[in-house]
Structure formats: structure tokens, C-alpha cells
């Protein structure tokens, strides 16, 4: 895709991001990545619209916006990039982050290179509600900015808002695992979903989801230790499962299969492996808990124990 083929709203956002960066040339690669474009595409855009002069690029961006982006915004039929007044954005009351944390480092970065990744918002009852970027929005307010780049998502169903926030925030290393766990719990309870169904919504495995949810069973002191890093996520998940009654008795000594029933948190994954993936007949004799063979129970439980650390070392 050459420069002229990049959508008009995207071109405007690119020009503003580059023009407002303290180091425009170094910002090109980051801007390209944030907009899922190649470096050549971004260079093509800026070279046709005033590069390397910041004021020329800002003027070009304003012209592009006035040339029809507003009409696209009003239609609400597609995702668009805009630079909008900061007062038009509202924080989402269901944001998965309870605490925005220290914004100092983020503010320093925004002053030096600009806001390279736009805030993501959705339309709701005539307002623009932030879907992702609450920390960026708060930092912009503190810096006294009057406008910010924004990606306005079209067609976001209310039931998908929480999962979208979990996906976006889950890609960031600074998301508190307990905040994420509460968001997953809310998503699970609101939709009466299984751990596996929650995982499918947010792009995580079933063991990852069950491991995070187990953290909510911990005492306040242990949760504080998770936040402080003095207790690992693996240890926290194991302790949470034990406290919540989901820990395998055989894992630390004497073997027991009395708890391996359809109510076990891994039951859905076991049934999927045994009956769907391996094709074992549900009426085969010797099925543990009446739902799966012992081999499949063991395979899923071991996989769950190995996967509980996925959140600490994402692929």
C-alpha cells in the first residue's frame, strides 16, 4: 500500500504523531507499528505532507481532517483515527484498572516523543467512552494537553467491552494480575461462562484464566504479596486453589480422585480432550468422575500446572 492509499483519517493521525514528537525521525518506526503499517508507508505519508517541517505536517493533518473525516465519524460505520478535544473523552466506569499507578514515566515519554499509540474509544449514547488508554488520557490531562489522537471503534457491542479492555490491557506488562483477575471474574459471572469460554473471549488459555481467578481466593495479605512480587503467581494460584477447594489432594502426597467430577474447574477441558480431540467414547468403562479417562485427567491437570505461569512469561 502506498502513501496515498492509506486512509485519510490514518494519515492525519500519523502526521500529528510524527509532528508532535521531539524526535520525528526516530518516531517513524513506532508510529508505523502502532498503525499496523510498514515503515515505507509511513515515510510515504509524511513525505507527501510537509516532512520534515512539523508545522507543515500539522497543517496537512488539519486539512485531511476537514476534508471528510468528520463525516465518517458521524456515520459510525467504520473505525477511524481522529485528533480530538480531550474533553470529549469519558473514562469507562468499568475499567479493569482500579489504580492508574504512577504516571510520571508515561508523562515523560509523552513529552519527549508524543503519544505514539492513540487512545481507543467507542461511541455510547452520544459520548466517546475510553475503551483502552485510561492512563494515557490521565497523563494527557496532567500535562495540560487539549487534544489527543484517538481510534474510535465502530460496532462495539456492550457485552464485548469488558473482554476488549482485558485483551488490550493484558498485552501490557504493568497490568496488576489481581485487577485482571477481577475483570475476568466479572466477565465470567456476567455471561455465566466457563473458564474456557472466558479464555476464548480474551485470547488466553483455560489454565491461565483459572490460575488468575484462583488469586481472588487469597487473603488480603497474600494478595499484597502478589502485588509486591514477594509471592509468585504460581505459588499464589496454587494457594488460591487450595483455599477455594480446587486444589488436587494428590498433588502433595496421597493420591485421590474423589474431587475429579464434572464440577472440577478443569472438567470442560478434560471433556474436550477426551471426547472431542481424542474421540474416546463417553460410555467407556473406567471413566473417572463419569466424564473422562484417567489418562486425559492427568494430561490436562499437568498442562494446567505448567501453564499457570504463562502470565509471567507471555509468548
In short:
The chain has helices at 8-19, 24-34, 39-48, 54-75, 104-113, 134-143, 161-170, 177-191, 195-202, 206-214, 220-228, 233-244, 267-277, 294-307, and strands at 80-85, 89-90, 119-124, 127-132, 147-153.
Describe this entry's structure for a reader:
This protein is an alpha/beta fold. The chain folds into two domains: 3-161, Conserved hypothetical protein from pyrococcus furiosus pfu- 392566-001, ParB domain (Alpha-Beta Complex), CATH 3.90.1530; 176-239, Arc Repressor Mutant, subunit A (Orthogonal Bundle), CATH 1.10.10. Helix content is 52%, strand content 9%. The protein contains 14 helices and five strands. It has a five-stranded mixed β-sheet with strand order 1-5-3-4-2, sandwiched between helices. α10 packs across α12. The longest helix is centred in the first third of the chain and has 22 residues, at 54-75. The chain starts with 7 loop residues before the first helix and ends in an 8-residue tail after the last helix. Mean pLDDT is 77; it is low at 249-258 and 309-315.
Please name the fourth-level CATH homologous superfamily of the largest domain. Answer: Conserved hypothetical protein from pyrococcus furiosus pfu- 392566-001, ParB domain
Helical fraction:
40-55%
Largest sheet: 5 strands, mixed
The number of distinct helices, counting runs of at least 4 residues, comes to: 14
How many separate structural domains?
2
Our Rg estimate from Cα atoms comes to 24 Å
Which geometry do the CA atoms define?
A: elongated
Distance between the termini: 29 Å
**At the third CATH level, what is the topology name of the largest domain?**
Conserved hypothetical protein from pyrococcus furiosus pfu- 392566-001, ParB domain
**Helix and strand string, N-terminal first?**
HHHHEEHEEHEHHHHHHHH
Could you tell me the mean pLDDT?
77
Compute the number of strand runs.
5
Strand order of the largest sheet: 1-5-3-4-2
Would you identify the CATH architecture of the largest domain?
Answer: Alpha-Beta Complex
CATH class of the largest domain, named Alpha Beta
Hey, roughly how much beta strand do the residues contain? 5-15%
Derived from helix and strand composition plus strand pairing, the structural class reads: alpha/beta
Low-confidence stretches: 249-258, 309-315
Amino acid at each position: 500500500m502506498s502513501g496515498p492509499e492509506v486512509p485519510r483519517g490514518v494519515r492525519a493521525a500519523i502526521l500529528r504523531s510524527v509532528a508532535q514528537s521531539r524526535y520525528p525521525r526516530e518516531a517513524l518506526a513506532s508510529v508505523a507499528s502502532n498503525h499496523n503499517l510498514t515503515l515505507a508507508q509511513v515515510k510515504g505519508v509524511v513525505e507527501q505532507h510537509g516532512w520534515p517541517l512539523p508545522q507543515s505536517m500539522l497543517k496537512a493533518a488539519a486539512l485531511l481532517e476537514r476534508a471528510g473525516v468528520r463525516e465518517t465519524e458521524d456515520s459510525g460505520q467504520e473505525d477511524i483515527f481522529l485528533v480530538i478535544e480531550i474533553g470529549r473523552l469519558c473514562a469507562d466506569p468499568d475499567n479493569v484498572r482500579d489504580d492508574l499507578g504512577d504516571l510520571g514515566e508515561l508523562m515523560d515519554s509523552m513529552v519527549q516523543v508524543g503519544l505514539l499509540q492513540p487512545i481507543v474509544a467507542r461511541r455510547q449514547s452520544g459520548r466517546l467512552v475510553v475503551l483502552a488508554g485510561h492512563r494515557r488520557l490521565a497523563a494527557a490531562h496532567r500535562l495540560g494537553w487539549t487534544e489527543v489522537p484517538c481510534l474510535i471503534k465502530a460496532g462495539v457491542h456492550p457485552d464485548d467491552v469488558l473482554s476488549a479492555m482485558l485483551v488490550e490491557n493484558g498485552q501490557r506488562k504493568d497490568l496488576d494480575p489481581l485487577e485482571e483477575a477481577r475483570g475476568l471474574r466479572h466477565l465470567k459471572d456476567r455471561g455465566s461462562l466457563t473458564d474456557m469460554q472466558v479464555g476464548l473471549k480474551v485470547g488466553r488459555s483455560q489454565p491461565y484464566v483459572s490460575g488468575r481467578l484462583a488469586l481472588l481466593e487469597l487473603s488480603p495479605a497474600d494478595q499484597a504479596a502478589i502485588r509486591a512480587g514477594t509471592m509468585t503467581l504460581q505459588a499464589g494460584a496454587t494457594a488460591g486453589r487450595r483455599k477455594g477447594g480446587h486444589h488436587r489432594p494428590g498433588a502433595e502426597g496421597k493420591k485421590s480422585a474423589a474431587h475429579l467430577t464434572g464440577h472440577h474447574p478443569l472438567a470442560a477441558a478434560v471433556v474436550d480432550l477426551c471426547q472431542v480431540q481424542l474421540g474416546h467414547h463417553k460410555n467407556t468403562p473406567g471413566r473417572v468422575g463419569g466424564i473422562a479417562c484417567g489418562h486425559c485427567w492427568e494430561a490436562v491437570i499437568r498442562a494446567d500446572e505448567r501453564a499457570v505461569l504463562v502470565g509471567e512469561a507471555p509468548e
